Every structure is written in structure tokens, then in C-alpha cells.
Amino acid sequence: MIGGVSVRAAIDDFEGRPVELTEERWGHIVERHPEIRPLDQSVLRAVEAPDGHLSGRLVSEEWFYLKTDRPSNWLKVVVAYVEGRGQIITAFARRSMP
Q: Average pLDDT, stretch 43-51?
């Protein structure tokens, strides 16, 4: 637990920046996208070693993509960064990478 927040996983992204996935965010992800539940390690892998990476809509947001063997083909993970530290905000399946 960091600062009263329960951290499910802490990793470094492909550029070496620390990224956390909190229990609260994981709960949000699987509640809205239950098909992601068995892909928890893939969510982390998308940030550690993405097959694609784009800037997000917000200045502090980045999008990470991982190619999967699932029918949707891609996993998209959204990370928000503040002062060089990231937090996974959401993750969901996509049919294509933009």
C-alpha cells in the first residue's frame, strides 16, 4: 500500500518510468471490461514491452498497445503520468490499432 492506495502491481514502462496499477483501477477495468480479467499480465506487458505506443488525448496521457491472439486482436492500456510516474487508468480490447 502506497499513500493509502493498494497497489496491485508496480512495473517500469519501456522507457524505464515507474508505472502502478492500483486495486481500484483494476476493479474499474474488469467491471467495465470483464473480458480483460484473464489478461492481467498482458496489461502489464503492454506497458513494459508494447507493440505500439502513441500519445494520448491529454498531455499527460500515453496509450500502449499489445497484439493478442484474442478476437479483438489488440489490447489498449491507458497510462497517465504525473512528475515522471505513471498510473494505469484503463485497459480494453480493440479490433485495430489507430
A: 97
